[in-house]
Amino acid sequence: MRLKTVCLLLSLFSGHSRAEMPRKSVSSQPLQASLPTSSSSQWTGALEIRPSFLANSNQIYGQNYAELGVTLNAATYLGYQQMFMNNFQNSNPQFEDGPQLALSDGFFRLQLRNLWRRGGSSLSFEPRVYLPTDENLRFQGMISRLRLNTTFEQRFSRWFSLFVIEAPIIHFYDRAGANDPGTGAPSANPEYENRVILNSQFTFSKSWSLSIPFILQSVRYSNYQIGATNNDTWSNTVLAWPELTYSVNRNLQLGLAYQTGNLISSDMSQFTIDKGFAAGSAELVFHIGF
Fold this sequence. Notes:
By secondary structure, the protein is mainly β. The chain is built from 3 helices and 16 strands. It has a single domain, classed as Porin (Beta Barrel). It is 8% helix and 56% strand. Strand 2 (51-54) and strand 3 (59-73) form a beta hairpin.
């Protein structure tokens, strides 16, 4: 078993990027590059390394991303983000040693900020188009997926803001399902997905901030074959992902985070809070903007 199998399991379980949570520290906009330009556009970039420790498997892996884009004006940003994973440590002898770099999600995104604004309220929109950069998802027949983020922000004070994100997602595959590359068992592919994110953002000072997002993810799977995993059904996930961030300067942020496992059963019939926290991962965050 290789790291790519772990990547698949994690992407099927959550598939979340912390980049989708608004950052409110020294600057709420992408960090600007000091590059010469003949227009008002400014190039931006970011690299985030996130070592993550899975307590129930004694594994340390990286959930990372790199992004490059251009801020067209104060309200418009166009960029490409590539997520990737790597192995730091794994005590399981079935896993190979070494960094085992593996690409996961990669997508283009267009941020349209403050389409509507009144007082402390604002509405933004962000369409994303995903590419089949994840080897495991390509194996399952992924062509692309389209995600449409609508973000409502309510700023109650300089210390506290509330974000509500609604994100419908349409999946495009060239087949209804495939054998899981990790287990070999048949598994149905997703057709449609919806995510609702409720994120409380606390800003304690110029340097310290805390975000506490709760994420509800509902996925509809295709009718592949009887007995296949998730065949012709809905699967639901609720997780929490609190993160404490310290901004060293405009270009460097450090953080501590904890991503829980699923806090409910897949059919939403009962809470699984104890199991969800036990299956979570503790994370260190190193975020560099340029």
